[in-house]
Write a structure and sequence with these properties.
Elements: E1 9-13, E2 19-24, H1 25-28, E3 35-44, E4 50-54, E5 66-67, E6 70-73, H2 80-92, E7 99-108, E8 113-122, E9 136-139, H3 141-146, H4 155-164
Parallel strand pairs: 3-8
Antiparallel strand pairs: 1-2, 3-6, 4-5, 4-9, 7-8
Amino acid sequence: MMKDNQEELFPIVDEMGNVVDAATRGECHNGSKLLHPVVHLHVFNSKGELYLQCRPIWKDIQPGKWDTSVGGHVDFGEHVEHALLREASEELGITDFQSERIDQYVYESDCEKELVFVYKAIYDDEISPSEELNGGRFWKKEEIELNFGKDVFTPNFEYEYRRMGF
C-alpha cells in the first residue's frame, strides 16, 4: 500500500508566504500548526461542472473523501506556480492549461495549518487521474451543494467552495 512520505521537506512560511524555516511532512501534520504552503486548482469544464478528486484511503489527512480538483504541498525551494503545474500533471495528467489565481488564505484544522494558494481553470480535454488518487469526476453545482455537511467532502473543500462563491 502506498503512503505519504513523512520525511518530505516542506517550507515553513509566514502569512505572506515568505519562507522562514523548513520541517518534514510529519512535523507539519502532527498538530504543531507549522504554517506550510499548499496549492489548490479548481478545474471546471465549459459546462460549469467542477472536477473533484477522491482521496485514497492511504492518505494521512482526510482519506476517502472528495476534494479539490488538484491539491498539493509546495516543496522546499519550489515556487508556488511550479508546484501548481507539477501537482496538476502528477494528479490529473494535465499540462496545457491557463490558470487564474483567485485567493490566498490560511486554513487551520486539528492537525495542521496551511497557507492555501487557490487557482481555477477551464479545461475540456481528457483528465487521467493518477494512482495518487482514487479517481475523480465532474460534479454539477447542485450535486455538490446537496452533499454538503454529509461527510462526503473534506472540510477544507467545503470551506473553500463557500469562500470562493462557486
